[in-house]
């Protein structure tokens, strides 16, 4: 089986498994306990927080550990909106965000009466920062934007939006799930007040992630109970997963440039091998090489996906968080419209540094044979 669905999740690498196994077997104490077992566990939590903070170039006091980016997105959006209603009632986001953002702001609209704007890309799929500027209101308190789209790899103008918001009272939330561990991610450089990520997108375990927040922000906790995470997120820490996440992040940071160049070669190779095939790309400008969204006119993607799976190739047609549903990609729908036949033609191929050129050749040959 050849795995080419890394935007959904990535395989946990052996060094991460080893670190987690050691933690599970050797460090079972509760990090909140004051005896030696608790102190040993607490030290691992502190080390994990230091590792994430170093990667982001921020203070370790401004990192909250969560169960993943979905929780972190909910924490940032709901927590800030509810705690700052006196400052305004408008929330601004894009129509191509991950469901954990789209559904969260929709919840804030439906249950708490917030005014929400979902900004669509231009007709050509491009998303310049001026689209955010044009939709800003005097009572906008929160702007949420992903750094890279999980379905197309499209890079959004987070730095430009950050500069734009420097002169506006709205805070800026950036979902960095698809870029963390792949490119340098420094929230202060892009003006992000909140930034979120998940470990399983960079070869760490599932069920763990983090939220960065600017130290001056006021926001409500979502999970109440104990005083963990500076009273921001109650619950005994998921210790072995934190160890796995930070081990994976350390390895990703050490090999970032090499990994990026390798994945770029995989991307270029696939496109070259398919040059004789009738296809078009859904890339809409600058993209991450880790994701290719490619479409074949008049070819049903559900049928292609099934045939490729039976042949031993794992890919997808869009977000794993909408798998099993019959709805078309909301990302492509925002560009092409809900009635476009293009919504049923696309495949998402997503790479990691673990993939090889031989795997890409094998995939391209099978795809071409199925298209014939």
N-end to C-end Cα span: 22 Å
CATH topology heading of the largest domain = Aspartate Aminotransferase, domain 2
What is the second-level CATH architecture of the largest domain? Answer: 3-Layer(aba) Sandwich
At the first level of CATH, the class of the largest domain is Alpha Beta
How much of the residues is beta strand, in percent? 5-15%
Low-confidence stretches: none
Query: Rg from C-alpha positions?
Result: 21 Å
- Envelope shape: globular
Number of domains: 2
Beta strand count: 12
Strand order of the largest sheet: 2-8-7-6-5-3-4
Please, what is the CATH homologous superfamily of the largest domain?
A: Type I PLP-dependent aspartate aminotransferase-like (Major domain)
Provide the succession of SSEs.
EHHEHEHEHEHEHEEHHEEHEHEH
Helix content: 25-40%
- Distinct helical segment count: 12
Structural class: alpha/beta
Pfam families: Aminotran_5 (PF00266)
Coiled coil: 246-273
InterPro entries: Aminotrans_V_dom, Cysteine_dSase, PyrdxlP-dep_Trfase, PyrdxlP-dep_Trfase_major, PyrdxlP-dep_Trfase_small
Domain Aminotransferase class V: 2-363
Secondary-structure topology with pairs:
Elements: E1 2-3, H1 14-26, H2 36-56, E2 63-66, H3 69-83, E3 90-94, H4 99-112, E4 115-119, H5 130-135, E5 140-146, H6 158-165, E6 171-175, H7 187-190, E7 194-198, E8 209-213, H8 239-254, H9 256-273, E9 280-281, E10 291-295, H10 301-310, E11 313-314, H11 330-336, E12 346-350, H12 357-371
Parallel strand pairs: 1-11, 3-4, 3-5, 5-6, 6-7
Antiparallel strand pairs: 2-8, 7-8, 9-10, 10-12
Helix pairs in contact: 1-8, 2-8, 3-4, 9-12
Organism: Lactococcus protaetiae
GO molecular function: cysteine desulfurase activity; iron-sulfur cluster binding; metal ion binding
Cofactor: pyridoxal 5'-phosphate
């Amino acid at each position: 089986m050849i795995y080419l669905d890394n935007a959904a999740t990535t395989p946990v690498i052996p060094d991460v498994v080893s670190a987690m196994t050691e933690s599970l077997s050797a460090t079972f104490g509760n990090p909140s306990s004051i005896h030696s077992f608790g102190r040993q566990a607490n030290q691992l939590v502190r080390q994990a927080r230091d590792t994430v903070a170093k990667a982001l170039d921020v203070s370790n006091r401004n990192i909250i550990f969560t169960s993943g980016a979905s929780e972190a997105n909910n924490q940032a959006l709901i927590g800030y909106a509810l705690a700052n209603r006196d400052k305004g009632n408008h929330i601004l986001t894009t129509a191509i965000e991950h469901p954990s953002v789209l559904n969260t702001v929709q919840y804030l609209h439906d249950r708490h009466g917030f005014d929400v704007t979902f900004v669509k890309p231009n007709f050509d799929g491009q998303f310049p920062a001026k689209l955010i500027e044009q939709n800003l209101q005097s009572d906008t308190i929160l702007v949420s934007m992903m750094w890279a789209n999980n379905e197309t790899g499209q890079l959004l103008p987070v730095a430009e939006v950050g500069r734009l918001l420097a002169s506006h009272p709205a805070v800026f939330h950036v979902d960095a799930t698809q870029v963390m561990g792949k490119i340098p991610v420094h929230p202060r450089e892009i003006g992000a007040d909140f930034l979120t990520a998940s470990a399983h997108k960079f070869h760490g375990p599932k069920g763990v992630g983090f939220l960065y927040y600017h130290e001056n922000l006021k926001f409500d906790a979502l999970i109440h109970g104990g005083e963990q995470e500076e009273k921001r997120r109650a619950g005994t820490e998921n210790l072995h997963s934190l160890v796995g996440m930070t081990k994976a992040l350390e390895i990703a940071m050490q090999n970032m440039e090499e990994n990026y160049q390798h994945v770029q070669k995989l991307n270029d190779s696939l496109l070259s091998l398919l040059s004789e095939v009738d296809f078009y790309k859904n890339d809409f400008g600058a993209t991450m090489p880790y994701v290719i969204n490619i479409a074949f006119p008049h070819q049903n993607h559900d049928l292609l996906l099934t045939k490729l799976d039976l042949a031993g190739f794992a890919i997808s047609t869009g977000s794993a968080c909408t798998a099993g549903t019959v709805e078309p990609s909301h990302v492509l729908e925002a560009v092409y419209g809900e009635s476009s036949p293009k919504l049923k033609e696309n495949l998402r191929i997503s790479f990691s540094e673990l993939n090889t050129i031989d795997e890409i050749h094998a995939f391209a040959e099978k795809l071409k044979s199925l298209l014939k």
